[in-house]
Amino acid sequence: MNDAVTDVRCMLIPLHEGRLLLPNAAVAEVIGYRDPERVTREEPWLRGEVHWHQREIPVVDFERLRGQPRRKGGVRQRIVVCYAADGSLERPLVGLVAQGIPRLLRVSPMIIEDASKPLDPESPVRMTLQVDGEHLSVPDIDHIVRRCAMVASGAGDA
Hints:
By secondary structure, this protein is mainly β. It contains two helices and eleven strands. The protein has a single domain (8-153), classed as CATH 2.40.50.180.
């Protein structure tokens, strides 16, 4: 058995305030931003859907999902297409709006200064990390995909 500590290849996704951290394996592709087609039920955090590789995927404004006010996007805005880990989901993809070009980062346990999970089980954040003095949020992609599915099915307030 190998006891060596391995780095995790991740992607830093810039937001207006702060950044998200996702393992590379959770990211399908980073695409140029295009205006999503609105969905039937309006949620302030759900921008709509975009066509990607013969599929319609929901596009989520993560900052609005966390209750922050809507802000104007910049010219470097992107959509980060992410996979949900839960294989039982009917539509396991979601697009997260990035406010710039994501960059790669190798994360090892030695550079993590602090890690914590949110107290709210309904939080779209799986955990927060502090790396080099910066607070990074790890989104809960499964939770976000389920919320999008609830909106699509009209099942109560997502």
